[in-house]
Structure formats: structure tokens, C-alpha cells
Amino acid sequence: MSTGLIILLIVIAAVVVVGAAILVARTRGGHGGTSLKRRFGPEYERAVALHDGDTKAAERELTERVERHGDLREQPLDGTERQRYADRWTAVQEHFVESPREAVAEADRLLAELAAVRGYPDGERYEEQLAALSVHHPRHVDGYRQVHRAARLGAGTGESGAQTEELRSALLGARALFDELTSTEPGRHRAPAGAERTAPAAATHSHARSHTPWALHRSRPKES
């Protein structure tokens, strides 16, 4: 084999290696920087804050979440299951009138159960369940985090526990995630950050309107 041919083969091999390295870098880059900000939205900012502004550490954590849970496929709910969960959520919100702390604890348990039914890690593994939800529902997962925290703070406490308005806010925040987990629109939560969602059909969210009782709105007085 001539020297010229050997050099040519070496050059070709080098080009192939460099090309492969660039491809791998681009593939990995899909999980970082701007892509992660777009995917996680407020969860990205929260992760950065938790890492004291260290964006690299935050991006490593978020990338690990995507690698662990990105391939998860939500299990469907049939109409009967969807209505059953909607009815239970309505009952939780109505219970809030008489016992805010108990209602928030019920909402926490209901979200954990619903997420598990949809294919997420079991509620007994809260942190893992939360991480998986953050990958697929990043814009509303904090509502679950808040209601879980409120439920734990309120457990076993008297009047010195979480205040009613804080509990009300937590429950309302958690409802956004509940709506997504019971939605009939597959992939609705994967809309790009900043993208406007079209108004859902009335049939799709008829139950959503029905499970927001007046008890959670301060502007309407409690009836006797």
C-alpha cells in the first residue's frame, strides 16, 4: 500500500471520528442550555436557584431527570375513570369549606394516586414521582409540590398550622396539574414555553368547570 493511500485513509478516518464527535455533542446539547430552559420553564429557574445560581449543576440535574423519565408514556384514562377522579376532586374542594387542612391532604393523596395510575412512579416515592412529573408537566408540577408541602405542614397541627389562604392557594395551584393529568388532549402539556394554547372544546373541559366550587373563591359569600 502506497504512502499516499495510507495518508488518505488516515484523513478519512479522522473526518469520520470528528463528525461522530460533533453529532454526539449536538445530541447531548439537546438536553442543555436553551433547550432545557424551553422544556422546563419555571422548573429550570427553580433548579438554578436551588443550586445557588450554578446553571451547570442545575442543567446536570435536569438532564438526569430527562434521561430517567423522558421515555415515560402516560397511561390513558377512560371516560369513567376521568369522571370518577373529577368527582373526587370536586368533593375535595367542597370539603375545604369545613376542613381546609384535611382537604389539602386529600388533594395531595389524590394527585399521588392519579399520577401513579397514569404511569408515573408510585406516590410512596414522592421525590421520584415529582421528578418524573416535572419532565412531562414542568409548568404545573409546582402546584403538586406546594400542596404536598402544605399537607405535611398541616398534619397534626392546630390553629398554628398553615393559614387558610395559603391552603386555598396550594389547592388552586394543584388543580392545574390535576386538569392536565385528567385531560383528554394527549401531549397538551408538551406545548413549547410561551406558546399560546388554543381554547379547549367545551366537551373536553366540562368537568373542569364543574369541579371548581364557589368555596374556593373568596368573592362569593358562604351560603347557609
UniProtKB/TrEMBL annotation:
It comes from the Bacteria. Residues 183-224 are annotated as: Disordered. The chain crosses the membrane at residues 6-25. The keyword Membrane applies. Keywords: Membrane, Transmembrane, Transmembrane helix. Residues 192-205 have a biased composition (Low complexity). This is Secreted protein. The lineage of its organism: Bacteria, Bacillati, Actinomycetota, Actinomycetes, Kitasatosporales.
